[in-house]
Amino acid sequence: MTQLISENELQHEFHIVTGLALGHEAEQLLIKEARRRQRRRQRWIAAAVATVVAAAGLVYTVAGGTPGPRQSPTNAQPVSLAAFQTCLVKNLHASFGGASGAAGTDYYELKLVNTGAACTVPPIAVRGFDTSKASYVGPWSKVYVTSHAKTVVASGHAAYVPVGVGVTGNWPTSLCKPANVTALRVVEAGNRAAIAALHLRVSVCTITQSLHTQSPSHNPND
Questions:
Q1: Residues 94 and 129 in one domain
Q2: Per residue in 83-142, pLDDT tens?
Q3: At residue 11, does pLDDT exceed 60?
C-alpha cells in the first residue's frame, strides 16, 4: 500500500526536483498538490484490490464452492421447490427403524411417510416422554441443520431423520441426572406441532440436552 510521507520529505523531494529554493507559500501549494495526487493513487489501488477480490469470489461460486441442493425425489418431475408447502403434521406417519452407535451416541432412523400431497419436510425435534404419566422427561433435543436443501416427498414416499440419543454416562451425574423413558415425542421443530409419541426405551438426561436430530433427507443412510 502507498503510505503518506512527511512534510519534510515532501519539501526535500521538491527541492531536489526543482533545484530551486521555493518560497514558503509555493512550497505549501506543491506539498498540498502532492498529497492530493497521493490520495488519488491510494483510492485507485483500493478500488483495484476490491475488484480483484470480488472477481475471485465470483469464480469460486461458479466453480462449485457453494454446495448444491439435494436431488428431487426420483418419482417426481424436477420442479421449483418453492412450489411445495411444508408438510402438515397430520399427514406424516412416523416410525423408528434401525439403530446404530457412534462415539458415545446411539442413532435411530426416524422414518416419516407422507400421506398427503407432495410437500417439504420440516425440521424435526424430539423429547423424552413417559407414556405411563403422559409427561415429558428432560429438555427438547438440539436440532442440527446438516443441510440447507429442502427435502420434498411425494405422496406415499418417505423422508428420514437421524435421531441421536447421547449415552448418559458421557456426562457427570450432577450435570445429567439421567432418567429412563418409554417413548420419544416427535414434533415439528418450529411450532412443536405433535407428530407422534413413538415407543422407545432409552435413558435421557433431565438437565443437559442429550438428544439431537439432523436435517431430513431422502436417504436413510444420511
A1: yes
A2: 689 999 999 999 998 888 778 999 999 999 999 999 999 999 999 999 999 999 999 999
A3: no
- How far apart, in Å, are the Cα atoms of 142 and each of 46, 145, 190, 198, 214? 44, 10, 12, 18, 9
Q: Where are the beta strands (DSSP E) in the chain?
A: 92-102, 105-114, 119-120, 124-130, 135-137, 142-143, 152-153, 158-166, 178-188, 194-205, 211-213
Residue 220 lies in a domain: no
Distance CA 2, CA 45 (A): 8
d(CA 121, CA 119): 6
- Cα separation, 205 vs 215, in Å, equals 22
The pTM assigned to this predicted structure is 0.62
Name 187's bridge partners: 125, 194
Range of the domain at 161: 81-213
148 lies in the same domain as 199:
yes
Residue 98 to residue 111: CA distance in whole angstroms? 10
Distance of CA 68 to the CA centre of its chain: 14
Name the residue with higher pLDDT: 4 or 217. 217
What are 38-84's pLDDT values in tens digits?
Answer: 777 767 666 665 665 455 444 333 334 433 333 333 333 334 445 68
State how beta strands 194-205 and 211-213 pair. unpaired
Q: The domain that contains 188 carries what CATH number?
A: 2.60.40
In a domain, 73, yes or no: no
Residues near 56 by beta carbon (within 8 Å), at least 6 away in sequence: none
